[in-house]
Specification:
The complex is a heterodimer of chains A (315) and B (125). Chain A has nine helices and 14 strands. Chain A is of the alpha/beta class and 315 residues long. By secondary structure, chain B is α/β, with parallel strands linked by helices. Chain B has one domain: Transcription Regulator spoIIAA (2-Layer Sandwich). Classes of the chains: A alpha/beta (315), B alpha/beta (125). At the A-B interface, helix 7, helix 8 and helix 9 of A face helix 2 and helix 3 of B.
Chain lengths: 315, 125
């Protein structure tokens, strides 16, 4: 099983501007000059925030299982690049089946669909799975006049909306998929994907407080022993408990605690705060890894990574 | 976890001991909430002494934040004193160090409350 991250930012897509890029290049050049020696090796040795970027596309994550059908969580702006990748791989003349699993229908999680080229191509089948009654309405509405010039009815692919029930298990695209209800305004749903003994959990846009043991136990059931959990770590704990309390997102510390309790192997920090620079996300990652060490106790180490647009991890 | 309190002039000092985590945060929060209630409408301020706390989890920090939300609008400041290194790190990682005034030593925290509180602490200590 492989997870490919096409969009990892929270709430709204963002990009570097010219000043941000100049600052990044300046810091990298200085560090490479100071390091001396082979420039390529010096570049490879730079921290990620200097040699790369976390990117700015909103939520879109692909789960690859080796099967023929695509499995994708959310259609944020990252879906545009996924579309280009799929078309580059298969060409427009080879119909594909795309299974979308929708966490919820807030705009940052559906905004990529009008630019998802496979939806325009007859022969493709796109099944949009979700637990919300308003799933189809939200997808259609964002393409209605005057929001977008191409109405939903114009799309050439066969598009089906599939209502799922939380806590029920389904066999889809050769995988076992279980949606579960999360803590977000208007509800959001996480998904546990299982195949061949590997488990990936997609859990974004959920505000965990860990105050209620019964509520915590509910989530532990779906996180239990996962190889990887993609988790909303948008805020610091201070923000999540004060100014941004009840905004529907979690902190890096709560992510670590939940994953430790559930014996998860890898925590993929996700839904990054759009105001954070690459350097700030690197800093949060470093602090989260330190918190994992502090809070680990006698438990097994939890690997902590920060997802970025373009990241692929094999489970 | 154990919680004791003492008053030095116009400072109420809350001394916690042990781990403030899932199993103890509820009691800690109740204790703090009662002290904040007692301080409201008086000139008293609160200092939380964490010198004997070896770990605080997110739920423990949340308890502090709940107390702060109760206290701040009513003019009561909660200060944090004498954190162990690990707890200090957790404060930094959580950004709680940006919310609460923190002090390495109790006398400095009490001095920040008032000269009266600092003097009362020195006399008794």
């Amino acid at each position: 099983m492989r997870i490919r991250f096409w969009g990892t930012r929270g709430s709204i897509p963002t990009s570097m501007n010219a000043d941000n890029l100049r600052e990044k290049i300046g810091a990298a050049v200085k560090a490479v000059i100071e390091a001396g020696g082979d420039p390529d090796s010096a570049i490879d040795a730079l921290p990620f925030n200097m040699r790369g970027t976390y990117g700015g596309e909103s939520s879109c994550v692909q789960i690859e299982t080796g099967g023929d059908e695509y499995v994708v969580c959310d259609m944020g702006s990252g879906a545009r690049r996924l579309a280009l990748h799929a078309l580059g791989k298969h060409g427009p003349g080879a119909p594909q089946v795309y299974n979308i699993f929708q966490s919820h229908v807030h705009w940052d999680h559906i905004m990529g669909f009008p630019f998802f080229i496979p939806a325009f191509i007859p022969g493709n089948v796109i099944r949009i799975h979700g637990c919300h009654d308003v799933l189809e309405m939200a997808y259609r509405r964002q393409q209605d006049n005057p929001s977008f010039p191409v109405p939903f009815e114009f799309l050439g692919a066969t598009i089906e909306f599939v209502k799922l029930e939380p806590e029920q298990t389904y066999e889809i695209a050769g995988m076992t998929v279980t949606p579960f209800r999360q803590l977000h305004a208007g509800d959001s749903y996480g998904y546990r994907f299982e195949k061949d003994g590997k488990v990936a959990v997609y859990s974004t846009d959920s505000e965990h407080k860990l105050e209620d043991q019964e509520e915590t136990d509910y989530f532990l059931r779906y996180f239990r022993d996962a190889d990887a959990v993609v988790f909303d770590t948008m805020y610091s704990l201070a923000d999540a408990t004060s100014l941004k309390e009840d905004w529907g997102h979690s902190s890096n510390m709560v992510a670590v605690e939940l994953c430790q309790m559930a014996h998860v192997k890898t925590l993929c920090m996700f839904h990054h705060e759009p105001v954070y620079s690459d350097a700030q996300i690197d800093q949060v990652l470093s602090e989260t890894r330190r918190f994992e060490e502090i809070s680990r106790g006698d438990g097994a180490p939890l690997t902590v990574i920060a997802s970025y647009d373009g990241l692929e991890i094999d489970l | 976890m154990k919680v004791t309190t003492a008053t030095y002039g116009d400072a109420i000092v809350v001394r916690a001991e042990g781990r403030i985590d899932q199993s103890s945060a509820g009691d800690f929060q109740k204790e703090l909430s009662g002290l904040v209630d007692a301080a409201i409408g008086t000139e008293k301020q609160i200092v939380v002494d964490l010198s004997k706390v070896d770990y605080i989890s997110s739920v423990g920090l949340r308890a502090l934040m709940v107390a702060n939300k109760q206290a701040k609008p009513k003019g009561v400041t909660i200060r944090i004193a004498s954190m162990q290194e690990v707890v200090k790190e957790v404060f930094t990682i959580s950004h709680f160090d940006k919310v609460f005034p923190t002090f390495d030593e109790m006398p400095k925290a009490l001095q920040a409350v008032s000269a009266l509180a600092a003097a009362a602490y020195t006399d008794e200590d």
